[in-house]
Amino acid sequence: MNVLKMKVGKELDLMVAQQVMGWNVDHHDIPDFSSDIKDVWAVVEKSRVLQFPNKFFKDSQGNWCVELDSGLVIKEKSAALVICKAALIKNSKR
Question: Does pTM surpass 0.85?
Fold first, then answer.
């Protein structure tokens, strides 16, 4: 599945819970990581996705962006969504 094409929702939240957070849960027991900035902060702390050398910024079109150390830039209208995608991609490189 192409993480970059995923949309906000429980499918993405479940992937983050399992692959980034390491939880053994189903769709009913997970926070709204991809849509709630308060929930996704646990992902930031666990994955360290916003640590140097990664860059987190808003571009001139109003998109939230994370530039990973690989040079890949992920852009989304939602900060929570871009953090989820960046964490999943970073986690898959380990």
Answer: yes
